[in-house]
Design a protein that fits this description.
This protein has two domains: 40 residues, no CATH class; 80 residues, GMP Synthetase, Chain A, domain 3. The chain has three helices and five strands, in the order βββαββαα. The radius of gyration is 18 Å and the shape is elongated. Pfam families: OsmC (PF02566). It comes from Chryseobacterium jejuense.
Length: 131
């Protein structure tokens, strides 16, 4: 399934409107980088994709199993190392509910099966054209 998003940046430094279908988000850069800090920066959006996909994937599985979990918390820290061409995602997941060790082990596997996690751990190719 293909996903299409469009980013539009005018003359206001780094304030970008990003649309996907009928939904819009704002991205920006922090003030110390010349932006106005009116939205997530692009790296935060990347980390947000992993965090939100993980939470949704876990929720779908938990509901299917009818486990009693009130809340799923996913925190993602993204550290980029441009000199070594390496990025490290640290993902911490916690639950408000009662889960045993076997359930937690299964949920770890499910977290790794979220579509964004799979994309980020596979080969990635970016094809660019100008029009």
């Amino acid at each position: 399934m293909a996903v299409t998003v469009k980013a539009s940046l005018g003359k206001t430094k780094y304030y970008t409107e990003v649309t996907a279908g009928e939904n819009t988000i704002i991205t920006d850069e922090p003030i110390d980088k010349g932006g106005q800090n009116k939205g997530f920066n692009p790296m935060e959006i990347l980390a947000t994709s992993l965090a939100s996909c993980t939470a949704a994937t876990l929720r779908m599985y938990i509901e299917r199993k009818e486990w009693d979990v009130e809340n799923i918390n996913v925190e993602v820290e993204l550290e980029n190392y441009p000199l070594t061409k390496r990025a490290v995602f640290q993902r911490e997941i916690s639950f408000e509910g009662i889960l045993d060790d076997e359930q937690l082990k299964r949920l770890h596997t499910i977290a790794d099966a979220c579509p964004v996690h799979k994309i980020l751990t596979n080969d990635i190719e970016i094809l660019t054209k100008f029009s």
